[in-house]
Amino acid sequence: MNYRHSYHAGNFADVVKHALQLICLDYLQQKEKPFFVLDTHAGIGMYDLQGEQAQKTGEWEQGIGRLLQAENRPACLETYCSLVRSLNPGDNLRWYPGSPWLSQQFLRDHDQLGLCELHPDDAEELADNFAGDKRVKVYREENGYIALKALLPPPQKRGLVLIDPPFETTTEFNDIVTGLKHALKRWNTGSYVIWYPIKDPMVTGGFQQMIRELDPPKAYAVDLLIRHAEDATKLNGCGMLFINPPFGLLEPLEELMPFLTELLAQGEGASWQGRWVVAES
Question: Less crowded by CB within 10 Å, the N or C end of the chain?
Answer without folding.
Answer: C
